[in-house]
Design the sequence.
């Protein structure tokens, strides 16, 4: 959807962040349940300077990335993309998205620090597995982390 409105530099930071040049553009939340899927997306369209300062982390917006787009154009692109993605997921599951994730993975082959409760694991991000868990290699061994239990930061 973001490519459709001209934002081609956007990548994915596991588990749900949209980033460009290491700065957060937005996020995606998807929950499945027996009756279907609940999904939400937040994308910074045009952040005022005061909001950028209040966020407290490097951030960006679509206005900065591509000179802006309208809410309506973004909403239309998102609706089309969600519809296509849900149909594909219903038919093939996460496996259909793994090559796309790999191509857009902002953490791939980068050192990360995973905070899992009281435990801290430092290692190299190695993509995601078939369940969507983050794979981190440390001391020659890969560990999988689910998004419900961790916070990930570049090391």
Sequence:
């Amino acid at each position: 959807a973001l490519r459709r409105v001209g934002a081609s530099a956007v990548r994915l930071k596991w588990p749900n962040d949209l980033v460009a040049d290491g700065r957060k553009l937005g996020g995606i939340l998807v929950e499945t349940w027996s009756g279907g899927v609940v999904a939400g997306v937040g994308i910074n369209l045009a952040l005022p300077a005061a909001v950028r300062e209040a966020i407290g982390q490097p951030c960006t917006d679509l206005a900065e990335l591509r000179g802006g787009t309208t809410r309506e154009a973004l909403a239309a692109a998102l609706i089309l993309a969600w519809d296509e993605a849900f149909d594909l997921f219903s038919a093939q599951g996460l496996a259909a998205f793994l090559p796309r994730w790999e191509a857009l993975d902002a953490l791939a082959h980068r050192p990360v620090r995973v905070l899992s409760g009281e435990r801290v694991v430092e290692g190299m991000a190695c993509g995601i597995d078939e369940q969507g868990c983050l794979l981190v290699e440390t001391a020659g061994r890969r560990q999988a982390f689910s998004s419900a239990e961790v916070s990930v930061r570049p090391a």
In short: The first helix runs from residue 49 to 55. The chain has a mean pLDDT of 90.
